[in-house]
Every structure is written in C-alpha cells, then in structure tokens.
Design a protein that fits this description.
254 residues; mainly alpha; 2 domains; three-stranded antiparallel beta sheet; 3 strands; 59% helix; elongated; Rhomboid family member 1; Rhomboid-like_sf; endoplasmic reticulum
Length: 254
C-alpha cells in the first residue's frame, strides 16, 4: 500500500519514501518486483546478470519449441563443425549483446529468450560461406539465400513483441565472434596472414562495441527515442504497438 505523506512520517512508520512522488510504501517496490539477487546499492538498481538469465526464459511453449528446433536442426550441425566451446562462445556473445542493445534502445519492454543467439547462429552460417567461398560451386547463391533470410526475419521484427534490436546486434556480434573463432582454410601464405589479421580486428571490435554498449547503458541511456521504437515496431494502426508498453515517460527528479 502507498500513501501520500512526508518523509518524516514515512521514517516514523518505518516505510520506504519515494521522493519523486512523495509516496510512502510498506515495501521497497522496485526491489520486491525485481527479486532474485538483492541490489548492491538500492539507490542504483543494478542486476546486470539479467542479461544472461533472460537467455533461458521463454514467453510460452511455442517460444520454447522454436528455440529447441533452431538448436536441434541448426546449432547441432554448427557444433559438429566448430566444436562445443566455439559455438557456445558465439551463441552467448550474440545473446548478451542482443539483450544489452534491447535494454538500451527499448528499456521499457520485458524481454525473454535467446533471440540474439539465434541470429548469431545465422551469422555463423554467413561466415562459413565466406570461409569456404573458393570451394563452393555457387557461393553467391548461398550467400544471397542467407541474406534474404536475414532481411525477412528483420522485416518480421517490426511486428509487436518481436525484438529487432536483439536480432540486429546478435547478428553483428555473432558475425564478429564467428569470424574470430571458427576454424578456417587458408589458400596461400598471404590469405592466411589476412585472415589472422581479420581475426584480431574482429576480437578488438567485439570488446570495443560491447564497451560502447555498456557506456550507453549506464551513462547515456536512451529513454525517449521515437526512431528507435519504429525499428522495433511500426505502428500501422493507432494501437498496433500500444500493447508493448513502450510509451512510458521518464520522470526527472526536481
């Protein structure tokens, strides 16, 4: 229960005072809603581990079945090709980056599932085509098919409750991680040196881009960005995207 009162009265009844609304509550609302591990600093709610735990949560049976099908029919073959450790690193790199980007650009939406990881697997297929380009009979056709799949899935991302930011950044980080970690075949000394150089470039980009996302998340959060919302859901009708609860306004403390 919350009531409008003064801070002195709230302290007297051992309640939790919310300065932004002059409310006194019986419980520390944000702490109780978030749950799991308590905040290290209550005035600075930080549960960074949620970027990882949300990978294993799903929005229902259908969502879970889609994940299992992707892992069984796609990830299983990639694991045989690259090894368990490599594919795990690619998978979780895409998932963490996708979740972090989603938290930055659409902060008022609850997100679950390994969407970023799935697009990291798609990026791994693209990297495999690039690595085997001279050995494929129709490499351009294979690459075009993957690009069409990517564009089609991103187009579906403008529908409600589909996280395009997790998809896009999962693909970007998955591509970089796959290029850096996947085994490759070199065609001559120059080609080997070029690929090793690109591996280091990809690793540096992963670290740099992830640090940039962290800086945005903690220092320059995107609370109000109309263009950002359009990339995640295009309002074809007035209430098309309303159910996503992305229209909250951030109240600045006076």
């Amino acid at each position: 229960m919350c009531r409008i009162t003064t801070k002195e009265y709230c302290d007297f009844v051992h309640g939790y005072f919310h300065e932004e609304a002059s409310l006194c509550s019986q419980v520390e609302c944000l702490h109780d809603v978030c749950g799991m591990i308590p905040f290290l600093h209550p005035e600075w709610p930080d549960q960074f581990y949620r970027l990882f735990t949300t990978i294993f949560l799903h929005a229902g049976i259908i969502h879970l079945v889609i994940t299992l099908l992707i892992q069984y029919f796609l990830m299983r073959d990639l694991e045989k090709l690259t090894g368990s450790l490599r594919i795990a690193l690619i998978y979780f790199t895409g998932a963490l980056a996708g979740n972090l980007a989603s938290a930055i650009f659409v902060p008022y939406r609850a997100e679950v599932g390994p969407a970023g990881a799935h697009f990291a697997l798609l990026a791994t297929l693209v990297v495999e085509v690039l690595h085997c380009w001279p050995m494929l009979k129709h490499p351009r056709r294979a690459l075009s098919k993957l690009i069409l799949i990517l564009v089609g899935l991103l187009a579906l991302g403008i529908l409600p409750w589909v996280d395009n930011y997790a998809h896009l950044f999962g693909f970007i980080f998955g591509f970089l991680a796959a290029y850096a970690l996947m085994p490759f075949i070199s065609f001559g000394h120059y080609d080997r040196r070029r690929k090793i150089l690109l591996i280091w470039v990809c690793l540096i980009l992963i670290v740099g881009l992830f640090a940039l996302l962290l800086a945005l998340f903690y220092n320059v959060p995107v609370y109000e960005c109309e263009v950002c919302k359009l990339f995640n859901c295009v309002p074809f009708t007035r209430d098309f995207c309303a159910s996503q609860n992305i229209n909250f306004k951030r109240e600045e403390q006076v």
